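subagent[fold] <- orchestrator: predict structure for attached chain, return tokens only, no commentary.
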Amino acid sequence: MTIVNYKPVIGYHFVAFLTVAIWGSTFVFTKMLLQNGLSPAQIFTLRFIIAYVLMVTGSLVAGLFFEGRQVAGKQFKLFADSLTDECLMVLLGITGGSMYFLTENASMLFTTATNTSLIVCTCPLFAMLLVAIVYRHTEHITRLQTIGSLIACLGMAVVVLNGHFVLHLSPLGDLLAFGACLCWAFYSLLMKSVLQRYNTLFITRKVFFYGLVTITPYYFVKPGFPPMEVLLRSDVLWNLLFLGVVASMLCYILWNWVIAKLGAVVATNWVYFNPITTILFAWWLLHEKITVWFLIGSLLIIIGMMLSDRKT
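subagent[fold] -> orchestrator:
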């Protein structure tokens, strides 16, 4: 009889949950930065700059720590092995960086936060569909996994709607939110491909770099940046450091690693937990009430996640 060790798998799921929990908390810190006059694009740019500078510095220091150019060269790799792979890194920077954040933040200018959250958090369904289409010959999505993902999606909708089953349709805003949803789904699909050839640290660093490169055209349309005295305010500085160091650098590294361990479909299903962690942080920090709908939706998400993680 074969004895299966579930401890590593449980550890991967815990890391995925922790990452999503941190991302669910970022709305508080982002809101505080918005109140200090920073725009969504400026917040994205600053947090990615912090993350990229730290990753480059860490890679260079690690390279200098080891003796010999060969070892040091392996610590800091500048380009991918081929032009095709480098183009994939550009797409990762767009789908997981600039375009994702711009479409998600812009959608809330034209539609409600509820609509945006509901649409964006359905990305696991589209990720599962994309993986089933692209990898149909190598990775089979079972009926049980499909049912589990649908149940989790239903639970997420119950949590987000919170008993108020009225959606205010806004074609432009909802389309932008759907664009953000597709961006993250394609990010998961592309990540599954490049993780087979490159390590997590290299990929994450490239995501930050090309996210910053592809956001620059935005500043030709809306130029300007916060003055230094604003950025050096203690509340602004600490919030930016949290978003850059923890929510960006650390969480992107962990998330890409989790995709490599659990697969794109199972890992992305954890996005359904995002509204749960957001509401919990709102209850803790903003003293918002937890309703019975939140409990019902959370239970559905947990059941759906358990089913989607099973192969048979």
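orchestrator: received. Logging for downstream: The first helix runs from residue 7 to 35. The chain is about 75% helix and 0% strand.
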